[in-house]
Design goal:
There is one protein chain. The protein is of the alpha+beta class. It has one domain. Helix content is 22%, strand content 18%. The protein has five helices and six strands; from the N terminus they run H-E-E-H-H-E-E-H-E-E-H. The strands form two sheets. A four-stranded mixed sheet has the order 3-4-5-6, sandwiched between helices. The radius of gyration is 15 Å and the shape is globular. It starts with 16 loop residues before the first helix and ends in a 10-residue tail after the last helix.
């Protein structure tokens, strides 16, 4: 697993976020595949997709990890909101049960726990695990994301 951040990438055939993340604008629940997803190809309504989908970028898309760590190859989507200095969120979501228990999944969780950021890891079918390190700063953008954004709706929050 590489920690090097390179240049922004293209999704290509990866559609894992279309399966793992909730999108209220599409009445799509977390953990279910989006009805507009053409698995392995992309979004059927790409030109008119909701703003939250337009703005979303996983860690891999932003350059973290290797080609072999692309979410459609690992089944795990990592998202960062905010940053270490001003308070951030490191979110890890699996697309199928048990993937976070894999060696790669465990490395991602441990990497998150080593950061001075709020860590949220989501096992499919389970409530999210939220860990706030002692002394961590939680920025209002992170709180807003946790309360109103992906992947969970307000009624599902911890």
């Amino acid at each position: 697993m590489s920690d090097t951040i390179t240049t922004r990438r293209s999704c290509g055939g990866c559609t894992t976020c279309c399966k793992t993340l909730g999108v209220d604008a599409l009445d799509k629940k977390e953990g279910e595949e989006c009805r507009y997803c053409d698995t392995g190809k992309g979004c059927k309504i790409y030109a008119s997709r909701p703003q939250i989908c337009i703005n979303y970028a996983c860690d891999w898309l932003n350059g973290a990890g290797t080609e072999d760590e692309r979410p459609d190859k690992t089944g795990i989507v990592v998202t960062r909101v905010g940053n270490r200095t001003t308070g951030g969120l490191y979110q890890i979501v699996e697309s199928e049960p048990g993937l976070l228990a894999s060696p790669y999944g465990k490395r991602l969780v441990n990497k998150g726990l080593a950061l001075p950021m709020v860590v949220c890891y989501c096992e499919k079918g389970e409530p999210p695990h939220l860990i706030i390190p002692s002394g961590a700063i939680v920025h209002r953008r992170v709180l807003r994301f946790m309360m109103n954004g992906m992947p969970y709706r307000n009624e599902d929050r911890v």
